[in-house]
Amino acid sequence: MTERFLIILALAVVVAAAIVAVRAWSGRRLVGLKAGPTRGLWNALGESPDGRPSLIVFSTPSCTACRTAQHPAVEAVEARFGGALRVLKVDLSRRPAVGHAFKVLTAPTTVVLSGDGRVGSFNHGFAPADQLAAQVSAVAAPASSR
Asked: Going edge to edge, which strands form the sheet with 54-59?
């Protein structure tokens, strides 16, 4: 009985350590995107900043969560902000270089860019509409206070 408990405890410690390591690694990747030059990101997209916040939506045709959850959330945010927000959709199966430039790990992934093109927020996996709207508002606020 004690052996089983120790095995379960050891597995829990290993899982917790793995989670901490992955979060730290992912956090370093995000810091690199936020601090680094953004020209390469925009070149990969084939676009340039236009003064509006941008929401980049990465998906694949086979991504069920993209179709059933992420795209409706993005449409709600797009409707809320209207022309004040630019939404760019990237199919990772057709444009893998863009995903590589943004260091995308999974679909869906969403990235919020400020009006001057800097990375504001990065969401691996599904991001609900309220979260995306708050992230867009956060990068739009500095531009409106100038």
From this structure: 86-91, 54-59, 109-113, 119-124
Hey, is 144 helix, strand or coil?
helix
Render pLDDT for 35-77 as a digit per residue (tens, 0 to 9). 566 777 888 999 989 999 999 999 999 999 999 999 999 999 9
Contacts for 66-72: CB closer than 8 Å, 24+ residues apart: 66/107, 66/108, 69/108, 69/126, 70/108, 70/110, 70/126, 70/127, 72/129
Phi, psi of 102 (to 5 degrees): -90, 0
What letters, b where the CB count within 10 A reaches 16 and e where it falls short, cover 6-45? Answer: eeeeeeeeeeeeeeeeeeeeeeeeeeebeeeebeebbebb
Is it the case that residue 19 has pLDDT exceeding 50? yes
d(CA 134, CA 123) in angstroms, rounded, equals 13
Residue boundaries of the structural domains of the chain: 1-36, 37-144
Asked if the bond preceding 108 is cis, omega within 30° of 0, the reply is yes
Whole-model pTM?
0.75
CATH architecture of 37-144: 3-Layer(aba) Sandwich (3.40)
